[in-house]
């Protein structure tokens, strides 16, 4: 945690990735529970906006390493609370992180709708840079959906060809 607290952006980003990997391979339930508590209290609930942003970096890494159920159970509520953070740079980082997290959480339509609702409400943020980050997120999500539709059409066309 010292690297996260006193390191620069790149160190905090790498340390967040490392924490996600540690979580993935921590099989001792007591140690895992302690690590979850430390991540939530020292990062997500920190008074430092840099540490709260690091929590968002952790979430972006953790979604690739943890199961969806584990992420939702332990980190989702803290993650969503970052959308209403008092510091604009944290809200901006939240908007940027949705691009990474939303595809992994789309299997839950209620959660997908909640994330999109959060983005919609953030479009009226008082900080113009937050609004810009939300617009960029919307654009990137739209590009992902278009790409997925094209892949689906290609897959369906190939499937039809194989059945003939």
Word description of this protein:
This protein is mainly alpha-helical and 164 residues long. The chain has one domain (2-163): Alpha Horseshoe (Leucine-rich Repeat Variant), CATH 1.25.10.10. 83% of the residues lie in helices and 0% in strands. The chain is built from nine helices and no strands. The chain has helices at residues 2-6, 9-25, 29-44, 49-65, 68-74, 76-81, 88-105, 109-122, 128-163. The radius of gyration is 18 Å and the shape is globular. The model has no long low-confidence stretch (mean pLDDT 89).
Mean pLDDT: 89
Helix content: over 70%
Q: Which superfamily, in CATH terms, is the homologous superfamily?
A: Leucine-rich Repeat Variant
- When the domains are counted, the total is 1
Shape, principal axes of CA atoms: globular
Q: What is the CATH-assigned architecture?
A: Alpha Horseshoe
Structural class, please? mainly alpha
Q: Quaternary status of these chains?
A: single chain
Computed over alpha carbons, the radius of gyration is: 18 Å
Low-confidence spans: none
Q: Could you outline the blueprint of secondary structure elements for this entry?
A:
Elements: H1 2-6, H2 9-25, H3 29-44, H4 49-65, H5 68-74, H6 76-81, H7 88-105, H8 109-122, H9 128-163
Helix pairs in contact: 2-4, 3-4, 4-7, 7-8, 7-9
């Amino acid at each position: 945690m010292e690297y996260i607290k006193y390191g620069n952006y790149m160190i905090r980003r790498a340390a967040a990735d490392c924490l996600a990997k540690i979580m993935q391979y921590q099989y001792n339930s007591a140690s895992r529970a302690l690590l979850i508590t430390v991540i939530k209290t020292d990062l997500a609930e920190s008074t430092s906006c840099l540490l709260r942003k690091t929590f968002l970096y952790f979430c972006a890494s953790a979604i690739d390493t943890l199961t969806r159920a584990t992420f939702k159970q332990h980190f989702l509520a803290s993650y969503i609370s970052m959308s209403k953070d008092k510091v604009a740079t944290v809200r901006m980082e939240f908007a940027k992180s949705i691009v990474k997290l939303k595809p992994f959480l789309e299997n839950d339509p209620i959660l997908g709708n909640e994330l999109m609702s959060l983005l919609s409400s953030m479009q009226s943020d008082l900080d113009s840079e937050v609004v810009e980050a939300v617009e960029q997120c919307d654009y990137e999500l739209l590009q992902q959906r278009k790409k997925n539709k094209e892949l689906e059409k290609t897959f369906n066309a190939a499937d039809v060809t194989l059945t003939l």
